[in-house]
Specification:
Strand 15, helix 13 and strand 16 form a beta-alpha-beta unit. It contains 13 helices and 17 strands. Among the domains are: 146-290, Vaccinia Virus protein VP39 (Rossmann fold, 3-Layer(aba) Sandwich), CATH 3.40.50; 294-413, 3-Layer(aba) Sandwich (Rossmann fold), CATH 3.40.50.720. The radius of gyration is 21 Å and the shape is globular. The model has no long low-confidence stretch (mean pLDDT 94). The chain has helices at 60-63, 76-93, 112-117, 129-136, 149-157, 177-187, 201-206, 223-232, 267-282, 294-315, 326-335, 367-373, 386-392; strands at residues 12-20, 39-45, 52-54, 101-104, 122-125, 142-143, 162-168, 188-199, 219-220, 235-243, 249-256, 319-322, 345-346, 364-365, 377-380, 402-405, 411-413.
């Protein structure tokens, strides 16, 4: 395989999770009687541009299907994050009724609803029919296409260039990262700004977050790699912020490289960019050693989870899980967990309820099931929402139950 950005051959391994089905390919009851498609799940490092990337086995159309089941609005903390972002960027960029905001991968309208409420013209670009339908139900315009240079050029010719393009948790999800990034250069107005949020590879390694590796995540991103990719595709990084979301993320502000005297290109922003690049270099991210110890950490977490579930079974303790999240599917499939050890997982999303997790085939139920069965332990699979879920499930303590997380280490919450 060659690097999806610079084309150099890939030799350095980062993570090998064996094989797994696509993490959002939830199964109906009828599908349980049919074969299931699994793909190898290996992650490699380009030692030329330092882009970490999943080995190619599945195209985007096989992963982002019409019935895609991830809906952003089911997380209250993520809604609050989106609302705060809109308020902050509106003030920072002076956005108003004469502006145009575009969100690439707009999902169910979780963010654009706040742009619309602020009276700012906007539209979304979203390839999955299920989430686009939900966004349209909020009165939002959605273009149901994959984004890249071709679509950006179409929209630019139609006079639909943007003052702001938001791209939250999508940069890692694109197989052709060069075409995707180049599209922003075409769709931005000359002094427009694009913001990209994505999990920070440095925090992934420091927090043992191996379960964020799955086929939909084609890339695992450092600022070092992102800056190089942007520069090659007509964008310049003008500022960066570190965020707590998804276990530690970056919000990168980018402008067109041909924009002279850009108002967002400030000395303060440049200093933050330089500081974070220096932090990554000091952590060893420009050398092979940084990437060599991740596999043993994943194996340790796998053993801890299996030991915990087996011990609960031996002690007669009942266990359920909360959150049918993609990262949970990576964890459960790598550990080989099946319904005999974990009989069900609760999820708030009605689109997932009544279905089964891919691979493990654990049934997905509603929250009433949790109250009815009163398990002794509840494993929180989306650990990035740990505080939100712990507050939501505080009632588990009423029957002596305890909440558990497996990442970065197995922990029973007291």
């Amino acid at each position: 395989m060659k690097c999806r950005h610079c084309g150099q051959p890939l030799h350095l391994p980062f993570l090998d999770l064996g094989s797994a089905p696509p993490s959002n390919a939830y199964l109906s009851e009828a599908a349980l009687r049919a074969p299931e498609v699994w793909f190898p799940l290996r992650v490699l490092v380009c030692t030329h541009c330092w882009l970490v990337q999943t080995e190619d086995h599945a195209g985007r159309e096989a992963l982002f299907t019409h019935d895609y089941a991830y809906f952003s609005s089911f997380s209250t903390s993520w809604l609050a994050h989106a609302k705060a972002y809109v308020q902050a960027v509106q003030q920072r960029l002076g956005l108003g009724a004469g502006s145009c905001v575009v969100e690439v991968a707009s999902n169910d309208g979780y963010l654009l609803q706040y742009v619309q409420q602020a009276g700012i013209p906007c539209y979304g670009i979203e390839p999955t029919a299920s989430t686009a339908k939900a966004a349209r139900a909020l009165g939002l315009e959605v273009i149901e296409r994959f984004f890249g240079v071709a679509l950006a050029d179409e929209l630019a010719r139609a006079g639909r260039q943007a003052d702001l393009i938001a791209a939250n948790n999508v940069l890692a999800h694109v197989p052709d990262i060069n075409d995707f990034v180049a599209g922003f250069n075409r769709l931005l107005k000359p002094h427009g700004v694009a913001t990209f949020e994505f999990p920070h590879l440095l925090r992934m390694v420091q927090g043992c977050q191996f379960d964020t590796a799955y086929h939909e995540h084609y890339s695992y991103l450092s600022l070092t790699a992102v800056q190089r990719i942007f520069a090659a595709n007509g964008l310049v990084v003008v500022d960066v912020q570190e965020l707590p979301t998804h276990g530690g993320s970056l919000r990168v502000f980018a402008a067109r490289a041909d924009a002279t005297a850009h108002p967002q290109a400030t000395p303060e922003g440049a200093a933050r960019v330089a500081q974070l690049l220096a932090t990554e270099a000091a952590a060893g991210m420009l050398g092979e050693g940084f990437y060599s110890n991740f596999q043993p950490q994943a194996l340790l977490i796998k053993r801890e989870l299996l030991s915990f579930l087996l011990q609960c079974q031996a002690d007669g303790l009942t266990v359920g899980a909360y959150g049918a999240a993609a990262k949970g599917n990576t964890l459960l499939n790598f550990a080989g967990v099946r319904p005999d050890l974990l009989p069900y997982v609760v999820d708030k999303n009605p689109a997932k309820q009544g279905q089964y997790l891919p691979g493990s085939r654990i049934p997905i139920v509603d929250e009433a099931h949790l109250r009815e069965h009163r398990p002794d332990r509840v494993l929180i699979l989306p650990w990035n929402l740990r505080d939100e879920v712990a507050a939501q499930l505080d009632y588990v303590r009423e029957w002596g139950g305890k909440l558990v997380v497996a990442i970065p280490r197995l922990e029973v919450l007291e």
